[in-house]
Specification:
Oligomer: single chain
CATH topology of the largest domain: Rossmann fold
CATH superfamily of the largest domain: Vaccinia Virus protein VP39
Strand content: 5-15%
Order of helices and strands: HHHHHHHHEEEEHEHEHHEHEHHEHEEH
Number of domains: 2
Radius of gyration: 27 Å
Number of strands: 11
Structural class: alpha/beta
Largest sheet: 7 strands, mixed
Length: 499
Amino acid sequence: MTPLPLLVITFVLSTCGLVYELLAGSVASYLLGDSITQFSTVIGVYLSALGIGSYLSKFIERQLARRFIEIEILVALLGGISAPLFFIAFARLAGFQVLLYGVVAMIGVLGGLEIPLLLRLLKDQLTFKELVARVLSFDYVGGLIASLAFPLLLVPRLGLVRTSLIVGALNAIVALSCTWLLRPMLHRVALLRTQAILTLLFLFAGVFASEQLTRISEEGVYADPIVYARSSPHQRLVITRSRASFQLYIDGNLQFSSVDEYRYHEALVHPALSLRPGAKNVLVLGGGDGLAVRELLRYPAIDKITLVDLDPEMTAMARTHPLVRSLNEGAFDSPKVEVVNDDAYVWLNEKRGPFDAVIIDFPDPNNFSLGKLYTAHFYRQLRLSLAPGAPVAVQSTSPLMSRTAFWCIVRTMEEVGFEVRPYHAFVPSFGEWGFALALDRPFEVPSRLHVDGLRYLTDANMPSLFLFTPDMAPLPVEANHLNNQSLVQYYEDDWRRWN
């Protein structure tokens, strides 16, 4: 037997092992939030378990080839079902984190057994220095491939559940292949092949049933029945429906409920447009559901609305899904509206504009990718795209539930020269929710609306939005910069207290 097939197997095992680690961290972040903590703890448990497995390998003294194949079958089963198991268990098991870290540890221990056993199987084929150099090289290259394929190919194209099952099937294929590659070292090979084939068939069956598995797992997470679910290269979109309303979730986080979203979107749009009712060229960053655009279309003076949203799947859903399209009143069909699917951070760096008003409706800054959209650098680029006196309204998370993060956003905008008037509105689905209204010059709190027919805002109650009770009052905070992303840490610390 030549060593090359087993070196290729080393590459495959390293790739699969790192994917399992990334899957566990991603699912934990998705379900538990606080991505920094989840990835750190998952990586720590996995790496320490690898060390334990490597140590335990010395106690395997006989039938190395058979033990190696049995370990691969176990890794295939445990790793393959890990993502659907986590999702299904989350809503049904009180000790979810015990299961999470227990599975990660078991995969790590089994993974730690693999390379030492491979080294021992190859020891008669290569000199020691060649053996170590080649095995570790293939191992590290496999890690590189996994780290690139996971965010760029596997999750965007397959989703977490299908990725888990397919990678598990790869481990089963390795086990099955080794029943031929290591045949001279094996006894009762038919039993091993049968186990590997059954494992492979089981995982392939899971791949074909992955949509149903995903639906079952997500139904345990959401309170209401799911009527739409789609994964894009950027996020997971889910719509649930109850008797009285429907809800949109992105990556498990509620974006709006149809029963009260009007409070949020009226508060987001109309205070800014009250300062510039004659705005003609308006920019919307985020807001791919079309609900902020719906509010802007109430202003006849507006000639053009440019909406920049990263995800074409999101804007396509807003155009075509009957529930969302009805709610946004077909906003994207207006000839005034141009939809651009691009990263707002990159798009804005090309110094677009000038715009007469800007509405920013990004998701909460719960990770570094989103946190960059709330940095001083981003707001400096935004200022370059504004016409003189153009108002900016920014969704700014909850000033009650995430108080330090809210004031961090305000502080960051002030640092780059904006005059900021923070405000808030009560949205039953979210509670107290915060916004920041900014201009490039001092201004008074708006007190007069220039449109009719609103369901929440009036001339009488709009000034009250700018008043804060002591439990939402300003706090001393740092501004948010690219090099520190303090906002993300504030946000996670704030919400951890409530969760």
